[in-house]
Amino acid sequence: MVLGPITPHGSVVVNASYDYAHFAKATSSNKPDGGNSEYHRIEKKDLVFIDKATSKRKRTSYNEPDLHVFASSNGLDGLTDEEKRKSCSFIGISNAHIDANSHRHAAVTIAGLTTIKNTGPHRIEAGDKIVWDIGGDTAGRKVFRTMPYGKMFGGGNTSHFAAVKKSIEAGDKSTDNKEADMCARMFTGMSGSSGIDQMKSFLDCYLEMSKRFDSRVIGTALSKADSGGDFDILVRHTH
Prior knowledge:
Blueprint: E1 2-3, E2 11-18, H1 20-27, H2 32-35, E3 47-51, E4 68-69, H3 81-87, E5 88-94, E6 105-117, E7 129-133, E8 145-148, H4 160-170, H5 178-185, H6 195-214, E9 217-221, E10 230-235
Parallel strand pairs: 2-4
Antiparallel strand pairs: 1-2, 2-6, 3-5, 5-6, 6-10, 7-8, 7-9, 9-10
Helix pairs in contact: 4-6, 5-6
């Protein structure tokens, strides 16, 4: 259903259903994090995702009932944070409550104007590009966090370049990912390499980090909010 034109003042709403397969996998865990069924409900304004492991069928349209969604990271046990991020794909914003006892579809806003809660620790300002991240280690239901784009980099870095430069200068091998390996190779086995070779390694690293960060952008904030407050967002608006 399209509510008005696809502009900053309209929104695109589709049907989805509760991911019972994900729920069964998550609650079968012996760990408290996954076992409590109460943690796996979906509330209005929640960010909702598909589990790449349980949603295997390729969709031909967003309105198919095979669009199965969930809204908390409880139950993703035994995975690193980066593995958890890779196992999920953002779909949109829930417009209703749904849980394992609900036998109905849920409306999900996949694009356009809507209101969500700032579930992250950082203040959000109007105009911020917003990304999703894994919930914190607090007890209870772990909803996915909203964060201003620059806060992903940590250490006060506010750009891709600053983040990549910091990784290269540190020669950090502790993170098991492709871009960190490329950064590390700039410090090992490259003695005598030309400046062009080093620049290529840097650009490869930069592009990999850019793709990883950009893949988690959910939209642009239109209003400000402290942690726990509501703010307006243009979902799927990334400019």
